[in-house]
């Protein structure tokens, strides 16, 4: 496997090969990571033209924005532990005309990420389809690594989930069952290891602002949502980070924080193209959303840097 290609395939065997678990079980002091979402190559033109099915034949603007994101991340000092992209990597749905070209252009940008900052990929609805199948998920895994997996960083347990299996698993119910069983096993492991925090990444938010809000294209259906929220609460999960909404949003459920981050790519609200800086301390998880311009020109503000400097 070519070195450039391997950076996209670090999620294998349901873990992230960039981090060795035995070296990462212990708390070693505060650290931070970068969360991005929805570079979604092709949506800006498609949205502007009002043709989200076939209007995604240009993505030059998204290339520039993602280059800007990579440059901003590469300049950060100290370096983030990793850079996670929470789904909708490109706009083209499985089997559509431009998807492979969009994916290749995205890889050409992302391969310039500092080699000491592992890339973590989360599957979105445009990556595997609104109603995924075994075939669309297999294709995603060949390009971007496993669709769900876990990893440890500095005493914190991270779970990457395939939220499309919660949205509509009608074509592959056995894959939803497999993820559910795996998740229960992982939460049991986390309980035994006594990790500092558990943090989840998924594309579709559980909810946008209120745990009992109505069903919507941008959240998970109420009955499914309630089951997951309760499971996460009982497991002591601290936060869920997602994308999908192309706006910043969020709320909480019994101490579980739902963080919805706006897009690197097309904005559907009043937010700017941006990235979220997430600082993990022994007691808490603190995050700020930065525009690509601000993060690239000014870096992380002193208040967050001071949190990283403590306890070292």
Automatic annotation (TrEMBL):
- What EC number(s) does its UniProt record assign? 3.1.3.16
Q: What class of enzyme is it?
A: hydrolase
Is Metal-binding included in the keywords of this UniProt record?
A: yes
InterPro entries to which the protein is assigned, alphabetical: Calcineurin-like_PHP (IPR004843), Metallo-depent_PP-like (IPR029052), MPP_CSTP1 (IPR041867), STPP_CPPED1 (IPR051918)
* UniProt keywords, alphabetically: Cytoplasm, Hydrolase, Metal-binding
Q: Which reaction does it catalyse?
A: O-phospho-L-threonyl-[protein] + H2O = L-threonyl-[protein] + phosphate; O-phospho-L-seryl-[protein] + H2O = L-seryl-[protein] + phosphate
Which CDD domains does the record cross-reference, listed alphabetically?
MPP_CSTP1
Its localization reads: Cytoplasm
Domain named Calcineurin-like phosphoesterase: which ranges?
A: 68-247
Cofactors needed by this protein, per the record, are: a divalent metal cation
One GO cellular component term? cytoplasm
Which GO MF terms does the UniProt record name?
metal ion binding; protein serine/threonine phosphatase activity
One matching Pfam family? Metallophos
| PANTHER family, alphabetized | METALLOPHOSPHOESTERASE, CALCINEURIN SUPERFAMILY (PTHR43143), SERINE_THREONINE-PROTEIN PHOSPHATASE CPPED1 (PTHR43143:SF1)
Describe the family membership recorded for this protein in Swiss-Prot or TrEMBL: Belongs to the metallophosphoesterase superfamily. CPPED1 family.
Q: What is the protein's given name?
A: Serine/threonine-protein phosphatase CPPED1
